[in-house]
Amino acid sequence: MIDLLKTNIGRLRVVAFLEGTSLILLFFVAVPLKYVWGYPQWSQIIGTAHGALFVLYILNTMSVASDRQWKFRATTWKVLLASFIPFGTFYIDNKILKHIK
């Protein structure tokens, strides 16, 4: 994991994992706790963390896209879109990010 943090693409992969995990926790844990069982505090906590991770993911994606000179229509939009779909960042990591050296 430490080696991943040494490169731009490695940092993007770590943030993608954290952002994807926070989205899953938000959708499948915090929201049901709030609306089914009446515990809104979990939505506030996880929602805030997810918001920060989402911004980091977008900024890191744009940084890597600029450094790697990604074509927006070929790669960048797919990586950005993944942050809106549960399990999307894990899919993108497997299909695109882990293959970039």
Task: Summarize the structure in short.
By secondary structure, the protein is mainly alpha-helical. The chain has one domain.
Structural summary, described in words:
The protein is built from four helices and no strands. By secondary structure, the chain is mainly α. The protein has one domain (about 10-100). Helix 1 packs antiparallel against helix 2, helix 1 runs antiparallel to helix 4 (about 90-95) and helix 2 packs antiparallel against helix 3. The two termini are about 15 Å apart.
Helix fraction, binned, reads over 70%
Low-confidence stretches: none
Order of helices and strands: HHHH
CA radius of gyration? 15 Å
Globally, the shape reads elongated
What is the residue-averaged pLDDT?
93
Q: From the helix content, strand content and strand pairing, which structural class follows? A: mainly alpha
In total, how many beta strands? 0
Largest sheet: none
Assembly state of the chains shown: single chain
Structural domain count: 1
**Strand fraction band?**
under 5%
The separation of the N and C termini measures 15 Å
Number of helices: 4
List the helices and strands and how they pair.
Elements: H1 8-35, H2 41-68, H3 72-81, H4 88-95
